[in-house]
Amino acid sequence: MSTPHSHDDDDDHPHASHAAHAIKDRAIKNQAIKDPAPTSRNESRLLLAFALTLITLLVEAGGGWWSGSLALIADAGHMLVDALALLLAWAGAHFSRRPPDARRSFGYARLEVLAAYSNALIQFLLVAWIVTEAGMRLFKPEAILSGVMFWIALAGLVINALVLRVLHVGPHAHGDHGHAHGDEDLNMRSANLHVLGDLLGSLGAVVAALLIRYFGWLQADPILSVLVSLLILRGAWRLLQRSGHILLEGTPDNIDHAQVTATLLQDVAAVQDVHHLHFWQLVGGAHMATLHVRLATSTDAEKIDSDQVLRDIKQLLHERYQIRHATVQIELKACPDIQCHD
C-alpha cells in the first residue's frame, strides 16, 4: 500500500509536539513572506559585484594588450571566471524563485548548474592558451610598459577590494529563521572566495610590474601568468567536478545511504525496512529524495498511523539531511516493484 505524498508541512498533527512544530513552520513561512528583503539585497549585491568585476576585467584585458603584459591578461581571464560565477550566483538566486511549470516541474534552478559546467570547460581552453604563451615568453621575453601595467593592476586591486566589501557577509546569529536564508548566505560566501582570488591576482600583477620596472626582470610577467592560470585551473576543475556530479544526479556529499537507512530504522517507530533510496540535488543545497518504507507487520498493524509515520520520516530527512522534497512510498507488504532493492 502506498500513501499519497504530501508537500504541506502545516497539516494538523494529532500530538501536541507536532502541533507546535506546525505552528513554528507557519511562523517561519509568514516571516519569509513579510520579509523578502534578504534575498533581494543579496541579488542586488551580486549584480553590483558582477558589474564592477566585468568593468575591471575589460580594463585589465585592454591594459594587458596595450602594455604587453600577459599577467594582466591572465588576471583578466581569472576575473572572467569569477564574473561568470557572480552572474551564475545572481541567476541562481533570481531563477530559484521562479515557479515550476508544466514542462519544467522542478523549475529553472538547474540553469545555473548547466552554465557552470560550460563555463568550466571554457576555462580549460583559456588556461591552455595562457600557459603556452607564457612558455614562449620565458625563452623570448617581450617588452612591457611596466608603468601602464602597474597603474591598471593597482586600479584592479582597489576595485576588487571594493567588490569584496560589497559582497562581505558578516557572522549572523541565525535561529530557525536564519536557516531559511542559509543557502543565500552560502551563495554569498562562495562569491566572496571568487573575488578574493581576483584580489590576489591583481596584487600579484602589481608586484610583477614593480619587479619589471625596477629590476628589469621581464620573466616575472610570464611566471605570474602561470601562477594565475593555476588558480583558474583549480577553480575550473572544482567547478567541473561539482556541476558534473549534480548533472549526473549524484548523491549529495553529506548523505550516506547506509546511515540514512540506519537512522530511519532506529528513530522512526514502526519502520521495519527501508529500500529503493535515491538522493540527488537540483543545485547545490537543494536536496531531493525518493524511498520505500515497509512498516512493521504484527497483530497491531491496524493501529499504526501511516500518515504520522510519513510525517516523522519527512521531518527527520529535512532536519538531519536538509532534504527539502521527499517522496516516500509506504508499504505494509512486500515491495511490488520488480527491482525494488536497486
TrEMBL record:
> Which Pfam families does this one have?
Cation_efflux, ZT_dimer
Q: Give one GO term, molecular function aspect.
A: zinc ion transmembrane transporter activity
Q: Which chain regions cross the lipid bilayer?
A: 46-66, 72-93, 114-131, 143-164, 195-216
* Gene3D superfamilies, alphabetized: Cation efflux protein transmembrane domain (1.20.1510.10)
How does this protein sit in the membrane? Multi-pass membrane protein
List localization entries. Answer: Membrane
Which stretches make up the Cation efflux protein cytoplasmic domain? 252-331
Chief location: membrane
What are the UniProt keywords, alphabetically? Ion transport, Membrane, Transmembrane, Transmembrane helix, Transport, Zinc, Zinc transport
Q: Which GO terms describe its cellular component?
A: plasma membrane
Q: Which InterPro entries match?
A: Cation_efflux, Cation_efflux_CTD, Cation_efflux_CTD_sf, Cation_efflux_TM, Cation_efflux_TMD_sf, CDF/SLC30A
- SUPFAM superfamilies noted in UniProt: Cation efflux protein cytoplasmic domain-like, Cation efflux protein transmembrane domain-like
Annotated ranges, domain Cation efflux protein transmembrane = 46-248
Q: Which family does it belong to?
A: Belongs to the cation diffusion facilitator (CDF) transporter (TC 2.A.4) family. SLC30A subfamily.
What's the protein called, per UniProt? Cation diffusion facilitator family transporter
Species of origin reads: Pseudolysobacter antarcticus
